[in-house]
Amino acid sequence: MIKLVILLAVATVGFMVWCLVEAISADGSRTRNLSKAVWIPVILLLPLVGALAWVFAGRPQAVAATAAGRPPQDLTRRSDPTNPAEEAADFSDRARRRVEEQRRRYEQQKKNKDQETPEVE
Compositional bias (Basic and acidic residues) spans (predicted)? Predict the structure, then answer.
């Protein structure tokens, strides 16, 4: 019986922590019924009831993408894994372009800095 109580207590604390992290990281303009600044103390001060209220009444719904006519995105996959070689080549190409762009910016900043500072003899 004690093990069950401990298990339920740990599950409750874990659920509250998850709800608190969700509330903190949620977009304040999309929270429902109360402002984000009110939801956080509600979750903290009303242990299980506040967390359940957040899930059912405060948490932003993920319906925005479907409302615009687009299917919701699968955030676990960014590309089609059917062709790993193509995916790897695409990743390498993007990484190479990003490095080249960073190198160009660095060289431009270095050049601008050299032009601004007068030489001391």
Answer: 91-121
**Residue 67 — φ and ψ, nearest 5°?**
-70, -30
CA gap 63, 68 in Å, rounded: 9
| Per-residue pLDDT tens digits of the chain, which is 121 residues long | 899 999 999 999 999 999 999 999 888 888 888 888 899 999 989 988 999 999 999 888 765 445 555 655 555 555 555 677 778 888 889 999 999 999 999 999 888 887 776 666 5
Q: Domain locations in the chain?
A: 1-61, 82-116
Look up residue 43 and give its amino acid: I
Q: Which helix (H) or strand (E) holds 115?
A: helix 84-116
- Coil vs helix vs strand at 80: coil
